[in-house]
Amino acid sequence: MPEPLLAVENLVAGYGGAPVLRGVSLGVAEGEIVAVLGANGVGKTTLNRTLSGLVRASSGTIRFLGERIDRLAPPDIVRRGLIHVLENGTVVMQGPADRLATDPALATAYLGL
Ligand SMILES: Nc1ncnc2c1ncn2[C@@H]1O[C@H](COP(=O)(O)OP(=O)(O)OP(=O)(O)O)[C@@H](O)[C@H]1O
Ligand SMILES: [Mg+2]
């Protein structure tokens, strides 16, 4: 079986040494839509932040298109095509695409959403 587009294994991450995610594993195949459900404060946003590099994983791996991305900075993750759309509609982008991070309309147009 081919590796999923996005493959997360045994991910541990949190804030200030206190883990929120304690061994999260999931896979997203090409063309698949995956929803993560859970109570308030359970770690859904933390998972998204870790996938986009805003929160650093203390262990575990994140692979996207077959490449490990869990040690990359957010701009380098964005460049590989993994985009984090925040709850307020802004898009996580940095570096040369800085303006896109603060202008949801521009980001939406840019991404063709
Ligand atoms: N910046 C932060 N610093 C320290 N702790 C944080 C921070 N952000 C979130 N947390 C804590 O991490 C845990 C998970 O929070 P998170 O925001 O990931 O949950 P969530 O599932 O997205 O919740 P919600 O359904 O309310 O959006 C909570 O206990 C929260 O208080
Ligand atoms: Mg949340």
Structure description:
The chain is of the alpha+beta class and 113 residues long. The protein folds into 2 domains: 1-75, P-loop containing nucleotide triphosphate hydrolases (Rossmann fold), CATH 3.40.50.300; 83-113, no CATH class. The protein is built from 4 helices and 4 strands; from the N terminus they run E-E-H-E-E-H-H-H. Strands 2-1-3-4 form a 4-stranded antiparallel sheet, covered by helices on one side. The longest helix has 8 residues, at 44-51. The protein is globular, with a radius of gyration of 14 Å. The mean pLDDT is 84. It binds adenosine-5'-triphosphate (ATP) and magnesium ion. Residues 15, 20, 38, 40-46 line the site of adenosine-5'-triphosphate.
Shape: globular
CATH superfamily of the largest domain: P-loop containing nucleotide triphosphate hydrolases
Number of spatially distinct domains: 2
Number of strands: 4
Annotated CATH topology of the largest domain: Rossmann fold
The side-by-side strand order for the widest beta sheet comes to 2-1-3-4
| Low-confidence segments | none
CATH class of the largest domain: Alpha Beta
Radius of gyration: 14 Å
Helix content: 10-25%
Distance N to C terminus = 31 Å
Ligands in the model, by name, code or SMILES, are:
adenosine-5'-triphosphate, magnesium ion
Report on the biggest sheet.
Answer: 4 strands, antiparallel
pLDDT averaged residue by residue: 84
What string gives the helices and strands in order?
Answer: EEHEEHHH
The CATH architecture of the largest domain can be named as 3-Layer(aba) Sandwich
Number of helical runs? 4
The share of residues in extended strands comes to 25-35%
Structural class by sheet pairing and helices? alpha+beta
